[in-house]
Amino acid sequence: MILDRTRPLFIRLLLLVVLVLVPPVAWIAYQAMGEFTRGLVPEMDKKAEAIGRDLELSIERAVGYGIPLDQLQGVDQFFAPVLAANPEIRYLAVTDRGGKVLFTEGAELNALNAIYGGVDFATDMEHSRKFALGSFIDLAQPLSIKGGRIGHIHVGMDQDYVRGRLQEILIDLGVVTLVALLVAVEILLFVVTFNITGPMRVVGTVMDRVRRGDFSCSAGVTSDDEVGRFVHGFNGAIRLADQLFRRLEAYMEEVKAAHFDAGVVEKVKDIESRVRFLFRFARNGQPEVVNEHQATDIRLPLFLFVFAEEISRSFMPLYIRDLYAPIPGLSPEMVMGLPIALFMLVIALASPSAALLANRLGARRVFLIGLVPATIGFVMSGLAFTVYDLIAWRVATALGYAFITMACQGYIAQVSQQRTRAQGLGVYVGAVLTASVCGTGIGGVLAERVGFRVTFLVAGVLTVITAVLIWRLLGSAQPVAEGPSPRKRDFLRLLRNWRFSALVAFAAIPAKIALTGFLFFLVPLTLNRNPSIDLGDMARMMMAYPVSVVLLSPLVARFADRVGWRAGLVAVGGLIGGAGLVLPAFWGEPVQAVQVAILLLGISHGLSASPQLAMIPDLCWTECRAIGQTNVLAFLRLAERIGSFAGPLLAAALLPLYGFEGAVAALGWVVLGMAVVFALLSFAYHAGPHIETEWGE
Amino acid sequence: MGQSSIAGGAGACLPPARPVRWSLARKVSLALLSILLSTLVVTAFFAYYKFESVYSAQVQSRYSFVVFTIKKKVEDSLNLGFALRQLRQVQEIIEREKSRDPQILAVEVYDYRGEVLFDTDRGAIGTKVSESLAEAIRSGMQQSFSVMDEDNLIVGLPLVNNLGKVEGGVVLRYPIAYVEKGVSGLLTQLLKSIAIALVAASVVAVAGLYVLFGGVGRKLGSMERAMGEVLSVGGQAIPENGGDSFEARFAEFVAKTRETIDHVKDATDEVGRLDRLM
Amino acid sequence: MRRLSALALALTLMLLLLAAAPPAGAAEPAAKPFRIYMALWRGWEDAAQGFKDYFANQGIPVELIIRDAGQDKAKLKEFVAEAKALKVDLVFTWGTTVSEEMLGRFDAVDPEQHISDIPAVFAVVSQPVGGVVPSLSSSERNITGTLYLVPMETQVNLIQSYRPTKRLGMIYNPLERNSQVAAEQLEGIGKAVGFDVVALPVEVSEGKPRAASIPVKVAEIKAARVDFLYIPPDTFLNINRDILTQAALDHAIPTFAAAENPVVTSKAMFGGVYRYYTVGQLTAYKAEQILVRKIAPKDIPIDAPKRLSVLINMPVVRQIGLFPPMKLMGLAEIIDRTEAKENKP
Asked: For an interface test with A, which of B5, B32, B55 has the most A Cβ atoms less than 10 Å from its Cβ?
């Protein structure tokens, strides 16, 4: 393994983590399943007995009125509702004294006859008896009239039912395991880069300078592990050379100053200039300490913070609904959409100043500053009384979110040189998306168990951990002044570029509308109406979005680089997303339709997100040169937040008009319409004078 | 250590090796084990709560079935035109149900005003039920309702006469402890499983990490040794099997350092010779 | 999930409370009993008893002023005057004649001749719509009431649920308007649902139906190979129920009766009715809404009891050997006099 690269070491570590995490979870799940079955079966028996007794009484009553057991009428219709109301009961049957099946519902008569044929019902059947029949448990209770036994009623329990109920938990545990793996990856990535790769990069930098004869620096690593020990020795070697030179220098000074023979002095001067020409040593004897910051340093704190924010993703609209209080002039749906919309608005408004501040004060301080409102926001959101104060706390969180994301972007921009900028951006996007997967999934499952409010408090605890990490581990990076920030006029010029405007208006904004309006707002509300879907299920369904973006994005980025068909990918992505949202209008199964719509939205954004950014340098070649690519991208981000803000409000406006599935579809038509416009425009992207003049320059 | 020989004087030598207090393997083990522990605890937590909810739902569905059978019997009598209050046989019905299952704490029938008309605990007849129970029946819905009292669970159904009017309600109380007892077995089992899984996985994890980071440590150690060797004796710091790019760069570094030291030493010697010349 | 459903329950309950909670203490017994004027047509029977018992069961103090017209239309005018003079709180009218005479047809109410200021409830009126009220949803005036006839569709469904029927026989008195209507309705439904109706009127001589012709008609019905014989709520057949049901039983024809008596006191096999007692109770429930909850009578819809009384005459069932389905057994009141004797030695 190469020590200054993360990947080889990390892959081995990942294998180990999978090996260590997955089997124990699987084993515990297996153990728990066994215990579940043991615990649940007696309880199911009791219920089957209660049902059997009730049916027994009805049948005995009928027989008591003189109806022969084998001539009972409508037994199937009598049994059917019992089966329907008790899913764990698979069949009901009545047998006569000889064990011949007279009536059955839920199972084939012949199948039961074959099985009961061998059973002796004549003896030892005064009480109910249980026996296993394949995957069923058959509970037979005697039917008797005036002390004489006339037959049996059989309640057949489905063993698979227990298994089915318990399989639900396997999905839960699957989510937990996935999240645990992702968290483990984040933490171990951090541990490896922080302890090994990072220091080794520093060593590499110092080494390269020494190879060029420059002994004026040393590696600034002071850990007390093997790496620290190695670096200590490494620095020692450099210092040894330095000390020898120092001694030589002193000696030469002495000779130069004290020697009477000018020829000797001249020769010593020659030696000195030769040594100084060949090697460079620190001027004052104090070597320059080299510390290198990396984009990955900030990944774990960013991950944890976004995790905290995403925890409330799957239930935020439901929580708002619980706290609902009327706001004059706004419909109830609007009020419910408002906290989400305002959250997005505040991020948009605060981001530019947060970015400036991050440049001035340094990423570390701005990150820490941002954590203060964010933590307060999370904790107080959990304690909110009504929607009024919830809005205030969400705005606080949004402020923190803007500060922290800008700090992270600033940090990454500072530490990564131009050529690794894309890689640095990858670190940022990767952390945010992974956190989104984990937060959404775990948040729903957690809220299901401990309630909304406690889940918010968990988010607060996560931000505190983030603060400690930043405080202890992140050396404050030197603020690097960016170029002069662009004036508003430059942005107006950007908007005059129709290709850019079209990208913003018909690709970036509808994508955000779909994200915030549909996924963040309508999905929880729509799914919540189905009583069979709990919060955990809902969160799992929503996870399809970040998971598909995470999986698809890197592949698409590579594909787009090779094929260069970026506008087309953005267009196709937009169309897929819009089409997905329209689905519930045509599909009778709203839950499945919503699930597919979420998945298609993920695919849509996975397809279009990175090509969208990658298009910018081509699209705005002149503007990028004038105001800098970073600023153009920042402006795109800012502009697309119009969509983030509008999404929930638009959805809230559509809700009373069209109902839940209707609102999803209506939003879908809007998004799809805009995507179609972009698709049509994208055909014109590669033609026209614009590109030609760019090439001409 | 023979570094002093090249230094040509006392005092300038490679510093003594720094002790390793927290080896990499230990650090990473600590991180990995804490992840492992929290994963297992969360897993167990979810498993337990899921089981608890499935189990209590099962218990509740059984008791709501029992309540439903009582409801049917009482309503059949109501349909004959008697007032709920007059149905003396109800007392017998509920007492029979209670005697069937020792876990049932009480079965109560109360009227729409919340006054208890029949109760397996006969002393409670004539008292008022809690407000939540009196409210629960007012909707007259078909589904059973469930309420939690201090330490017992209650399932119930409204009693509706054939005029469609809610006449009262029937509720069944059973102890929370019953559900808790049913799931406690799982809890101990889970704790046991966690302990075993944790120990087993920890052993694998620590062993794996020591192998993995032991390799890193050994590599670093050998590089350091090679450096000491080269600086004191001379030669090449490239490992026998070639080494990767980092090691190659390191070898260059060592060679350069060695060259520098030699050069400086030569220069010192030369200055010394010049100094002594006169 | 439990947390959520508990929450949902709480929310629902709150909404329901807001929407439907009666004013607190409204049901508390008032100090002064309500005075109710009961005008009957042919003496004290089950509907009147159900009406009376309801107040007793609910603990609502009432003072009942009971008057029986003895099937004499002339007395009804005096009743109106008396009720007005006594300034009673509510009037109860039994039967079509009493109700129409005392309360007036909906389009011809005369405050001089009819009860108009005092709220009234009617019971046992065969065709209230177009009679005392314009529609079932509201009387548009100071009265409300109950239905006592089971809708024909419901009766047919009940027969079909006992045994799928392809051909339905019926015997009726052609002189009774109600029976003619029933025969027409039955044929209409038969066409829609897909079964034949063989409806035979009894013979009429000198303007009177002949009871002796009943067994002949039953034999004809038998020859038509019907699955069921439908017995309409017909006064003549009610009086001659023993002849009719015995004849049917002799031919082993299963019979369905739209009235209580042929099943309970004779040999019809089964029936589906609203029992008079229940109808009386429901009428009293409406009176309670007017008197205790102060709901305006015009806001109380006119309807039938929620649950049908299904009556099964077990000795007849055993004799014919056509056993009822289990589901129906569960719902029905089983009439089994011999069984009862055996059970109580």
From this structure: B32
